[in-house]
Amino acid sequence: MDIADNKQLVKQGAEAKIFKGSFLRKPAMFKERFRKTYRHPILDESITKERMKAEARSLVRCRMLGIHTPAVYSIDFSTRVIIMEDVSEDTQTMRMYIDNVQNSNKNDVLKELKPLMERVGQIIATLHKNSIVHGDLTTSNMLVKLGRDRSTPEVIIIDFGLSYVDGSAEDKGVDLYVLERAFLSTHPNTEELFKTLLQSYRRNYGKGSSEVLNKLEEVRMRGRKRTMVG
């Protein structure tokens, strides 16, 4: 699978490069995973293949559940590339969106962002109820697309490269903790917003949410102890 003709590098992370291009005359994103030279080549091929399959599987499952994620167009294990729908048009990262609202001098930032946090809580609850653990929840891995009336933002979840299927409350609690740490460190003075997100999570998850949120608190305590010990 050749991505060289019209590729444009848009992002490079620790695990992969993201290119923008076209596939079958449609705008597309190409995610190309790195080779890990410190691993045995056969082991590296096996791990990469399993992670690519897990990522594609999570994306497909999310769409079946009504969660907006990029559609998977094609996978090429030989070149380590997943080709996906380009969902970047008319979107911005949630990180940028929240920053813009916080810097807009509006009187009630909490009121402005509350519907968005409720939607995110609903999405994560749906993921977890169906045993999908994202593995890297941050406001940079969520895109915001405003509706036509400019009042109802649509949330698109991206980057499922570390995702996996697990029904344990522990792993779901860790997933929420990763988001909480990323959220509060990136967006100061947003504790109330994150509480709104968790309230929505509890409400939409329903039975079983208390166990997950109790695990979240346990993970928080372990994190505080590590910080104190150094």
UniProtKB/TrEMBL annotation:
SUPFAM superfamilies: Protein kinase-like (PK-like) (SSF56112). Pfam families: RIO1. Keywords: ATP-binding, Kinase, Nucleotide-binding, Serine/threonine-protein kinase, Transferase, tRNA processing. Residues 4-230 form the Protein kinase domain. Its EC number is 2.7.11.1. Gene3D superfamilies: Phosphorylase Kinase, domain 1, Transferase(Phosphotransferase) domain 1. It catalyses: L-threonyl-[protein] + ATP = O-phospho-L-threonyl-[protein] + ADP + H(+); L-seryl-[protein] + ATP = O-phospho-L-seryl-[protein] + ADP + H(+). InterPro entries: Bud32, Kinase-like_dom_sf, Prot_kinase_dom, RIO_dom, Tyr_kinase_AS. Belongs to the protein kinase superfamily. BUD32 family. This is non-specific serine/threonine protein kinase. It comes from Limulus polyphemus (Atlantic horseshoe crab).
